[in-house]
Specification:
This protein has 306 residues and is α/β, with parallel strands linked by helices. 31% of the residues lie in helices and 12% in strands. It contains 9 helices and 8 strands. An 8-stranded parallel β-sheet has the order 1-2-3-4-5-6-7-8, with helices on both faces. α1 links the parallel β1 and β2. The mean pLDDT is 93.
């Protein structure tokens, strides 16, 4: 099976293979809510914008041990399209303490949705930006139809969208009858430095106030305008979002940091940013433990055997 990258899909740098613990230890049952598994033995889609290095379940478990995370959520990456085989294989071999977010076609049969649920999937992802046809348009009709079908299972919809250039997204998301999770602090294309000053950010705060969405505190290097750590311009939006709705914030590594255009840093260093955004220990526990337990349906003592 060929894994050579097409001309448009450059090879990504690997993550730091020797992760260190965060400066301040995470609480018991802490959850990494955003990571991907890549193995070349599962065929990548030709229509992709990058080609990742192998980053296996064993590699990821090593990271979780280093960080002190006892729960994790795998997210279907765009390079596999709607073929969730690599993610499902990892779920099968990972044991308890794992959940996942899948990508499906619009006409996915109900029997497939049921099978995904039994495997540990708890949401559907829609990436409308990091792809060849970067339209940055929220597929409202598709979301509305799939949301109706997944609502009885308690699933959510996860969006990767540049909110600052997505038009009037607030009314659209408000129409859905399932939780909506937004990646990378809303993923502003204009960058973190001016994100809090935009109309879109104010709309996001209103959505949070109404209880209509969740935000992933992930990928600060994807929105910073700084060349490298400490990504200080991400502090203001992160702190404002946490202050607005600490009960609907979740955190994730975004491992293995594909198509990262900044220098690759150790995951322990990047985990330290979370303490800077959330200095209060009780709020950190809420974001790392309680919130993901609610959103992904973890049992009280369910954890990874690492």
């Amino acid at each position: 099976m060929s894994t050579q990258a097409p001309d448009h899909a450059p090879l990504c740098a690997p993550p730091d293979r020797a992760p260190r613990p965060p400066r301040t230890a995470f609480p018991r049952f802490a959850c990494d809510t955003h990571a991907h598994i890549f193995e070349a033995r599962f065929l990548y889609a030709r229509e992709r914008i990058y080609t990742p290095p192998d980053c296996t379940l064993a590699d990821y478990l090593k990271l979780l041990r280093a960080l002190g995370c006892e729960r994790a959520v795998l997210v279907q990456p765009s390079v596999y399209g709607t073929d969730n085989a690599a993610m499902l294989d990892a779920l099968k071999n990972a044991g308890p303490g794992f959940r996942a977010v899948a990508v499906v076609d619009a006409d996915v049969p109900d029997i497939v949705i049921k099978a995904l649920h039994e495997a540990g999937v708890r949401g559907l992802r829609f990436n409308v930006v990091d792809r060849l046809d970067n339209k940055n348009r929220i597929p409202v009709e598709l979301l509305r139809d799939l949301a109706r079908r997944i609502a009885p299972l308690g699933w959510h919809v996860e969006l990767l969208v540049n909110l600052d250039e997505a038009g009037e997204f607030a009314p659209l998301l408000g129409e859905l009858n399932v939780p909506v999770v937004l990646g990378h602090l809303g993923y502003p294309k204009g960058g973190a430095a001016t994100w809090t000053q935009t109309h879109a950010f104010r709309d996001l705060l209103r959505l949070l106030d109404r209880g209509q969405c969740w935000v992933k505190l992930t990928g600060p290097y994807r929105i910073t305008t700084e060349a490298d750590l400490p990504y200080a311009d991400v502090d203001a939006p992160a702190k404002q979002l946490v202050a607005a709705a600490p009960e609907r914030m979740i955190w994730g590594t975004d491992w293995p940091h594909v198509i990262k255009k900044k220098p690759m840093r150790n995951d322990g260093e990047m985990a330290d940013l979370f303490e800077r955004w959330v200095p209060d220990a009780a709020t950190r526990k809420r974001i790392l433990v309680d919130n993901p337990a609610t959103l992904y349906g973890f049992a009280p003592t369910e954890k990874i055997s690492i």
